[in-house]
Amino acid sequence: MTIETWRFIDSGDCSPEFNMALDEALLDWHSEHKIPPTIRFYGWNPPTLSIGYFQKVDKEIDFDAVKKYGLGFVRRPTGGRGVLHDQELTYSVIVSEDHPEMPHTVTEAYRVISEGVLQGFRLLGLDAYFAVPKTDEEKAGLKDPRSAVCFDAPSWYELVVEGRKVAGSAQTRQKGVILQHGSILLDIDEDKLFDVFKYPNDRVKERLQRNFKNKAVAINALRAEPVTIDEAKKAFKEGFEKGLNIELEPYTLSDEEILYVEEIVKKRYANPDWNFKR
């Protein structure tokens, strides 16, 4: 089987608005056939709370806590729930809907793309696998989530180790292109995570946080030797190559491309009308 060459961008730690604008720009460029399918790794400076496209800010987010922790804030172009981007490796995958290896349904395409993430966990020595909601309660949770926290909820083909979620991803399809991006947790500060969301009362918050330990876990809580960000990048880059049967070719953005991204930043992701619209 022929191995396809995809583009690989490691953009390092960027502002929340630049991160989301670059993912959107890559989708645009791929839809215009200017770039091949692309995988991107990135981090966040400052650590950031991102929310899903459909989330309601006033109802779900505690902005006093966001300010107290000095967090950035941005609304993603993808769905899903809130994610605290802090001690993690974030990835995005940009590929055409009509790519011969991409299934037509969202859930099946999610499974195929996430195979790269799965292989990355295994290269780090973790026995990751795909799980799907099985009980009626879990399936109901997909339609009516109890929490605004991404890692607190089940989803189709979520990646788990020892029964606990280890990566959270979201997907959108625009202009004939799939954009999937997600968080791979190296460590997690549960108190900070739960402080930035609103709850009906303290008792509900405490119960959700207590149950969270049984639902999600970070890589370094599963390993005797902590993983550095560089080790994680190496493992997941190889994981995507193995899982998707591709070769990744490093690429650096041109000055012209960066200017295009910065235009999207001003138009959308640094614009309060976008971030606070719902």
From TrEMBL:
<comment type="subunit">
    <text>Monomer.</text>
</comment>
<feature type="domain" description="BPL/LPL catalytic">
    <location>
        <begin position="33"/>
        <end position="248"/>
    </location>
</feature>
<dbReference type="Pfam" id="PF21948">
    <property type="entry name" value="LplA-B_cat"/>
</dbReference>
<dbReference type="InterPro" id="IPR004143">
    <property type="entry name" value="BPL_LPL_catalytic"/>
</dbReference>
<keyword id="KW-0808">Transferase</keyword>
<dbReference type="InterPro" id="IPR024898">
    <property type="entry name" value="LipM"/>
</dbReference>
<comment type="similarity">
    <text>Belongs to the octanoyltransferase LipM family.</text>
</comment>
<dbReference type="InterPro" id="IPR045864">
    <property type="entry name" value="aa-tRNA-synth_II/BPL/LPL"/>
</dbReference>
<dbReference type="InterPro" id="IPR050664">
    <property type="entry name" value="Octanoyltrans_LipM/LipL"/>
</dbReference>
<protein>
    <recommendedName>
        <fullName>Octanoyltransferase LipM</fullName>
        <ecNumber>2.3.1.181</ecNumber>
    </recommendedName>
</protein>
<comment type="pathway">
    <text>Protein modification; protein lipoylation via endogenous pathway; protein N(6)-(lipoyl)lysine from octanoyl-[acyl-carrier-protein].</text>
</comment>
<keyword id="KW-0436">Ligase</keyword>
<comment type="function">
    <text>Catalyzes the transfer of endogenously produced octanoic acid from octanoyl-acyl-carrier-protein onto the lipoyl domain of GcvH, an intermediate carrier during protein lipoylation.</text>
</comment>
<keyword id="KW-0012">Acyltransferase</keyword>
<feature type="active site" description="Acyl-thioester intermediate">
    <location>
        <position position="150"/>
    </location>
</feature>
<feature type="site" description="Lowers pKa of active site Cys">
    <location>
        <position position="165"/>
    </location>
</feature>
<dbReference type="GO" id="GO:0016874">
    <property type="term" value="F:ligase activity"/>
</dbReference>
